[in-house]
Amino acid sequence: MQVTETLSEGLKRELKLVVPAHDLSSRLDQRLVEMKDRVRINGFRPGKVPVAHLRRLVGRQEMAQIIDSVIGETIRKVVEDRNERPALNPEVKLSEEVEAEKLVDGEADLIFTATYELLPAFEIQDFSAISVERPVAEVAETEVDEQLARIAEGNRPFVDKEGAAATGDRVTIDFVGKIDGEPFEGGSGEGVDLTLGSGQFIPGFEDQLVGASAGDARTVEVSFPAEYPAKHLAGKAATFDVTVKTVSAPGELVVDDEWATKLGLESLDKLKEILREQIRSQYDQASRAKVKRALLDQLDGVYQFDLPEKLVEGEFEQIWKQVVDEMTQAGKSFTDENTTEEAAKADYRRIAERRVRLGLVLSEVGEKNEVQVTDDEVSRALVERARQFPGQEREVFEYYRKTPAALATLRAPLFEEKVVDFILGKAQVTDKTVAKDELFKETEEA
Fold first, then answer.
1. How many whole angstroms separate alpha carbon 372 and alpha carbon 294?
2. Which of 283, 367, 373, 420 has the fewest Cβ atoms nearer than 10 Å?
3. Quick check: 271 and 148 in contact, CB under 8 A?
4. pLDDT digits over 113-154, tens only?
5. Which residues of 83-108 are buried (b: 16+ CB within 10 A; e: fewer)?
6. What is the rounded distance in angstroms from the CA atom of residue 124 to the CA atom of residue 130?
């Protein structure tokens, strides 16, 4: 085998590789000898098929498979001998000087080029020099009370009422929605409970049912908001033929231990404790996201090195597709966002570069420090994923079992979080008490 480096520029490498024809022929001969004891061909007893006859029948087909195998094996060996780490699988191109017919006939050398980019080499810095603030907020008792009030209101009893419905009353209705006189998909319902003034339906709908009594039929005229999620309805005028079945008034609501037991809890204090824990979990998640972001910002400033262009381009294409899809769904243009397509692409390319750079840093840190994700952790993540598709759990499990690349998408974020925890364990992390609003304030990606 002959190896010639034809390009060495930054992270880019290109190699010209030559595998002699006699090496390929030797492999073919060996394969045919192994095959002759297994194949069944009319006119020949088992194991008595002449190799020359077998070569005429399947030689070209087998040689094509051998060539594919040799290309992969050769590249892996050469890269390993050169102590290189390609960022992606090398791109392979057969030399134009090779005649395909002669190659599969075993009469020509296999000549091809392998083009690839290397993973950049960089030194892991001392994480003890990193200092980040972790915003934390105390759970106010008023927030627990607000959550409790929302649950209570959602479970308020209603009692049948004679006469006209008022704001705050609940009506049970049948309705058929129409646009230009024709019913539209998803615009009908039967036995639907609606609390007037709750804002559950589109603006103007509930107001027009105030004053209605059981048995009344009304035509409600509304317009769907311009930003309505269903684009085929957004901004369109519609009418709803509504029949009021019943009217109910809010009943007395007493929030006490007895009420809590009806919800399946042992006491009102236990319910408050659960709510407090849920709120604390939300705070912890927000705090975690903020300190992680602060850490990544610092790492992004510490590590500066050349990036494999293919990795950056792949990351950018994913980001850009998501951006374009979201803008299309929202019916917005770059002008609406006070920018241009060119400026937006430049911004998102910087984001792609940041993500690739930080991904390489976290990967290197995890590898050097033997950070591992266990099979049990992946299994738990798979269970959580399956729960997102009620009724399709079996199909989800089967898909991930048969698709290693998909399973890797579950392992990757677990690995990242573990590496972040490892670095935070080495860094100087200072808690800073902040207000709830500041804790949950969103920040744009740099």
1. 24
2. 367
3. yes
4. 999 999 999 999 999 999 999 999 999 999 999 999 999 988
5. eeebbeebebeeeeeeeeeebbebeb
6. 12
